[in-house]
Predict the structure.
Amino acid sequence: MDGMMSGEDTVFAVDEITTICKDVVEAQLKAFTYAHSKVTTWTSNVIEESLKKLTALNKPFKYVVSCIIMQKNGAGLHTACSCFWDLGTDGCTTVRWENRSMYCVLTVFGMAL
Amino acid sequence: MEVFTKKRRDFGAPVNFSYTEPYLIDSLAPNPELHKLWVERTHRDQQFQTSREMSEHEVNTDRIETISRGIYHKEGGWPKEIDPTESEHVTRYRKKIERDRMYAAALRTLQTTCETIIKQNNAVEINEKYFDSAEESEVQSDESDVPTLKSLTVLRDPNGSPEDHDGRWARKVVWRHEGAQKSRKVAISYCSLDFDKRLSVDIGGYGSHNCSSYIWDITNPNFPEQELSATAPITCLEYHTKDTNLMLGGWYNGMLSLWDTRKGHRPVDTTDIKMSHSDAVLDLKWIKSKSGMECASVGADGRVLWWDVRKFSSPIDTMEVRLPAWALAGRNRPGAKRSSRGSARPGARGAAGTTAAEEKPVAPLLGTMCIDYDSAAGLNKFTIGTETGHICLCNSKGRTPSERISAVFHGQHGAISSLYRSPFYPKFFLTSGDWSVRLFHEEVGTPILASKYAESRVVDCNWSPVRPGVFASAQANGYVDIWDLVRRTTHSVLSTKVSEHALTCCSFDHSGNLLAVGDEKGGLTICEVSKSLSNIGSNEKHAVQSVLDREQKREKNLESRMKESRLGKTTAKVEDSVVADLAKEEEEVERLFLESIVGAHGSL
Amino acid sequence: MSQEIDEIIKRITSHRGVKGAIVMNSEGIPIRTTLEKDLATHYAALISHLTHEGCKLVNSTSGGKDDLKFLRIRNNKHEIMVAPEGKYVLVVIQEPSVE
């Protein structure tokens, strides 16, 4: 089966992608404190940056990136997801990052082609 | 019927999808401690404005220098073969035309049309102006209420760089008098007197500096009409009172020179430097004399020199400006009890005789800022203003220096920047200095009118030559004030900013229509004053006279009251008690005032 | 013929207030005048220009169907009457306010 490439390339490399995402979030948000008017820009920056880095890996994957930024005011948050996909190749990873004023939760889903 | 076939391998890899268990992305527990810190903001500040946003811009057009040239074309239109200078040719040509039949015919028709018009013109004046006088008077009454100043042109020091307008000071400006007409020519002496530049001049000599001053035609602000060259900066200029071709100038190195504008830009004659002032000449005046060729100059070295301009090798006379003993003792004039000048003179002799011993410690020389001479006030009388703020009324006839100074007033707090006798009332004179302008009468020791302190130094003042009650004063913040004693004596009637830079001088032209104002960057602004400031009212001379007389009497009465009360202190007890009461009251007020201050401080 | 012309000029100048008359051709050459030579030349030179401009104006606004017949210039002292006809122009200077 020519489409079924097996090996390193086709597996969602959780560790590698987690580090990439962490770096991105860190770089984009570290300097700021939560400000409502800025959040839109921040989320799009984070998503764009991380997608850029992911595509730079040159792997046959589709990516879905979702970003949640929440003000730290003591409220609780619970978020979960479920997928219907190929367990062998596809995967997802989550990065949680926080500073004094906010949380950022970045989730990346990767689906092999 | 169509059949499609597609191999299995072209469908791609088989899918092997399965459901995953719910995957917990993140879970944050509520944090009540943080929640406690959460404060709802009840108010919110936000600014907005409904008006449109605007901005202000200022644009000034560049100065373009233009030159007008013209060609006078005297005669033309002649056919090629005819030379208009040959009369024979011309007459022959004319004859030829006159023989033309068309010519006569044309003329005949023209005659009728022209005659009709000529007759019509003679029958009725179709362009007659009605209500001529009414219109004029209306215009006048409109204008008479609003004094205005309109700047006409700016003359810049040709030696300054044009970009930043950084020229030398226009230290003094004099108008050429041309009868009752508006003057067109103005002479400006350019000479920087600020300290740092002065220092560099002192060290480096004048070599690198251009020392020329210029005469301008105000209708041509691009180029000066004539140069007046000198080897040191020219500090002051004065046109000869009769012959406007003669120009007298004082130099920064103490010399004087005479130019004849007909004989080019070099001075005709200069004084001998050894006999001249030992410091800058600061002011000079022509003196009325038989020859009409005498002048007096004053300088920072504290001397007054009299010259005959035909013989510049040595001065005719000199006088040192020192305060006499009676002035040092705080009196206005020798024999202080005498108030009128006529009786003061013999008194002065007596005082000089008796106080000779007192005068032994020589008072210091006083640098002299300005001199005024008006033959109407007295042929030998002149007035000088010193750097120490004293005004000395002098008489050039006196033999000893102390006789020459007949009265000393405390004019201003600082140097007297200018001093002018009124052209209408020679006994009154105007001084400027510190931050005010003051009007004096020569028999009263205190100013009869004094302006409020201005925001900035007053650098010059000048009487209007046509309106008895009008004078202008120039300030260091660029404002020119115009005063009209007929309207009010407390404030100026007009205050206008003329220049961005500090002003140095102002001067009315001889028709009273134009005012020239010089600044420290070499600019000279020519302003036109409104009709109301240059047209004399019907009995204005009388009205101003009465205002001045009233103020003078008031001041005189005050003076005598002061004296009386001083005398009264020693003699009359009644008065004494009144004075004592007053003093007590004053003390009480002062105490209360101090208390209130202390109280205020305490609460702070 | 020249007698007749003399007659015409004389008649015009004999009117009240008339200062002088100039007959000139369209080139601006004074042919006959009662004024001083220099003054006449001056007037002629300047007026020929003005007349020319005036003719141009009338011609162009009427589409070439009309001609300038008369020009009156009024100043404070005088009235200058300019009457062009063909190649020639008659100029009369009058001081109308003289009683």
Q: What stands out?
A: Chain B is about 25% helix and 25% strand. The first strand of chain B starts at residue 17 and ends at 19. The first helix of chain B runs from residue 32 to 37. The interface with chain A takes residues 9, 12-38 of chain B (CB under 8 Å).
